[in-house]
Amino acid sequence: MVVFCDIAVDSAVYLSRKILQQKSNALVFRCDYMSPPFKDKVFDLCICNDTLIYGYEHEMALLLSIHKILKDGGVAVLDFSNIYHRGFWHKPYTIAYSKREMIKMLKMVGFIIDSYKPIYYELGWDLDETSIYSKLLKTILPPTRYIFKVIK
User: What is the CATH number of domain 33-151?
Assistant: First the structure.
């Protein structure tokens, strides 16, 4: 079972239609992810993508909410924008963080960092980052984002 949460009506409707078309085993909840309607410690996995971008208080509240709904030993996959890379796709109202700030927030909430990976949007055509061009670009460009795998 997969559960999707989004407060935006258009996103919830879009996801609901996709799920019905594909006959997926999933549910869509239109809810505030800061106070989701779920019991504590019910999920084994939580993926939070492109949401930790609205400021420190927002991020801490969201991370605490995710921590609360994860089972002990549960895993969260989270992404943050890197402060040292501000590409054209970043909206002016979004906030980015240094890797040190990201790690500090995750530890303050009580997560154990299992691993993290820098992501380079400029290398979207070479996701394995195996070409010589990709290797060269990684030496001169900062990562666009960091993806963390954390454990409760």
Answer: 3.40.50.150
The per-residue DSSP string of the chain comes to -EEEEES-HHHHHHHHHHHHHHT-SEEEEE--TTS-SSPSS-EEEEEEEEEE-S-HHHHHHHHHHHHHHEEEEEEEEEEEEBTT---TTS-TT---B-HHHHHHHHHHHT-EEEEEEEE-GGGTT-TT--SHHHHHHHHHS--SEEEEEEE-
Do 126 and 133 contact (CB within 8 A), yes or no?
yes
Give the whole-angstrom CA distance, residue 100 versus residue 86.
17
pLDDT in tens, 1-51: 678 888 888 888 888 888 889 888 888 888 888 888 999 999 999 999 888
Domain boundaries along the sequence of the chain: 1-31, 33-151
